[in-house]
Amino acid sequence: MKKIYLICGLAIFLGIASGISFFLIRDANAAIPSNVTLINQNRESYTFGKDKTKLKLIEFIYTHCPDVCPTTTQKMVSLKKDLEQKGVFGRKIEFITITIDPYRDTPEVLSRYMKGFGIENGNQWVFLTGEKENIRAEQKKIKQITDALQFQYKDPGNGQFVHTTFTYLVDENNKFVAKFPMGKDFNQQEVYDQIMNKIE
What we know:
It comes from Neobacillus kokaensis. It holds the Pfam family SCO1-SenC. Belongs to the SCO1/2 family. This is SCO2-like protein. By secondary structure, the chain is α/β, with parallel strands linked by helices. The protein contains five helices and nine strands. A hairpin with a 5-residue loop joins strand 1 and strand 2. The chain is globular.
């Protein structure tokens, strides 16, 4: 009987270990396709493979989100100040906010969202969306990015998206480095330390 328990326990342990290994390997191999091009808050093109000099902290939002998205953006504003004091923001790392609702979140809407958080309109923190006139193709582009990072989302039909609650740090080649919880669980110090460790 003890042997059966031992075999069952070992099988469970190996199953859990295999599952953990699968997710770690999957995340480690994740990378955003370099040819994906979206438009920013100024209707300028942004291609992920164009600049290979900076780390990127990527946040997925939709501007009608009532809680976790604006909370994360606010915490990133505070993080940005710490990185500016260190002299690395915009030089070694940039922030990228991507809407998962490009139909409603036009460049104009994203610009207003930025202003609401006191975020300067520049190239150091870009807000990305798609062309409303070609929305299906643009949604597919955004899906390429979310799929690469295993970020999942769905509109149940009421305009309030259900989505994964992670932000992502990727390297200069758009490869996955780390992920962090969104909202109130976004630990600013932890993210700062990960960024600085990667830079140094």
